[in-house]
Amino acid sequence: MQVNKTNSEITLKFDDKEFHWKQNESLLTRLESEGVVKLVFPLHDEIKRKQLLRNWALNWLDFTWQPIDEIYSYFGTKVELCPAHFTRNIFLLFTIPSEGK
């Protein structure tokens, strides 16, 4: 959470409005009270994010295995396809012999 930790108020401008962010005040609280922010929701589910981090990003012992279903349910279709293609391309890179001289 962003808080004004300066020793004075900070003047903020949005559209034609000007308002003051007081010392030790939360920026989100100020923006909500001024009507700049209407709705706030978290972008990540921290428990699922940490699970993906452990099972996918930090899984160096078996880098060819991808938790496609978990990735799909967390990020959606467009992101889910990337790890599958990445793994396939890495596999092809290491299995197709290069032209040696």
Protein described:
By secondary structure, the chain is mostly helical. The chain has two domains: 1-41, no CATH class; 46-95, no CATH class. Helix content is 46%, strand content 10%. It is built from four helices and two strands. It has helices at 27-33, 46-57, 68-75, 77-95; strands at residues 10-14, 17-21. It has a two-stranded antiparallel sheet. A hairpin with a 2-residue loop joins β1 and β2 (17-21). α3 runs antiparallel to α4. The longest helix is centred in the C-terminal third of the chain and has 19 residues, at 77-95. The radius of gyration is 23 Å and the shape is elongated. The model has no long low-confidence stretch (mean pLDDT 77).
What's the arrangement of secondary structure elements?
Elements: E1 10-14, E2 17-21, H1 27-33, H2 46-57, H3 68-75, H4 77-95
Helix pairs in contact: 3-4
Residue share in β-strands: 5-15%
The share of residues in helices is 40-55%
Structural class of the helix and strand makeup? mainly alpha
Ends distance: 59 Å
Uncertain regions spanning at least 5 consecutive residues: none
Mind telling me the C-alpha Rg?
A: 23 Å
Lateral arrangement of strands in the main beta sheet: 1-2
Count the E strands.
2
User: What's the SSE pattern?
Assistant: EEHHHH
User: How would you characterize the largest beta sheet?
Assistant: 2 strands, antiparallel
**What's the total helix number?**
4
Q: Based on CA inertia axes, which overall geometry fits?
A: elongated
Number of separate structural domains: 2
Mean pLDDT: 77
